[in-house]
Amino acid sequence: MNTTDSRTAQLADNLAFVTERIRRAASAAGRADAPALIVVSKFHPAADVRVLRSLGVADVGENRDQEAAAKAAEVADPALRWHFIGQLQSNKATSVVRYAHSVHSVDRPGLVAALGRAMAAQQDVDGRAALECFIQVDLSRSGGGHPGGAHGGEGQGGALPRGAGPGGRGGAAPSAVPALADAVAGTPGLSLAGVMAVAPLGSDPSAAFALLAGISAALVRDHPGATGISAGMSGDLEQAIAAGATHLRVGSDILGPRPAVL
Ligand SMILES: *Cc1c(COP(=O)(O)O)cnc(C)c1O
């Protein structure tokens, strides 16, 4: 086999293994509906995305605009949906809406406004469909409110998005979710898809995802269409499925190891 063939075989194996894990977890949870699988291709080349596409993958995830924009242009497949899952600075909104089907990391009012402006301009150009937005929740801040919370706009003026410090995994405080959801729902060009979270490091993912399920249930009472729950990665997808995840974001168990995230 040549290099491409062996990479294809490897990705096919990994994909089959993860798909089987998903099927078993959904069945164990008594779920008839299998959650959607988003394959996180960050740090891996566009060639891998093409291979994934040939294996039937339609949804890929990226966490940096520069890398995602280049890869989306290189792969140039209109049937592929790109999901932006990383911390997003407002000044990248214009770029992201050119290729992204969804943003899973909406975590502050300033970003909602920036995405709304970017979408208005982009829809004038190509009439694209609404951008699906998940509100990212910081489950390590579940004590109800947090000094500075999600009302801090663009943060303290530093170069890093709020929450992106060492160990920080981003997201709005749970108490900020209703107002952010109303802002997304009230912005033309944006569609409120639901909530997203990363289980806090060193905590029990089942407890974290149960908390997220409760936040989702409250959100759906106000926004009946916003039933999405984006949760579950390579290491905790079973727990996420048990807690009702509708979208899984799986990287390393399909594509293999990548350099440590900066
Ligand atoms: C990288 C990343 C993932 C995928 O993580 P794996 O452990 O490689 O499956 C999921 N969600 C987010 C937000 C990520 O940044």
From TrEMBL:
InterPro entries: PLP-binding_barrel, PyrdxlP_homeostasis. Residues 144-175 are annotated as: Disordered. Its cofactor is pyridoxal 5'-phosphate. The keyword Cell inner membrane does not apply. Residues 144-171 have a biased composition (Gly residues). Keywords: Pyridoxal phosphate. GO terms for molecular function: pyridoxal phosphate binding. It comes from the Bacteria. The modification N6-(pyridoxal phosphate)lysine is found at residue 42. Belongs to the pyridoxal phosphate-binding protein YggS/PROSC family. Pyridoxal 5'-phosphate (PLP)-binding protein, which is involved in PLP homeostasis. This is Pyridoxal phosphate homeostasis protein. The lineage of its organism: Bacteria, Bacillati, Actinomycetota, Actinomycetes, Micrococcales.
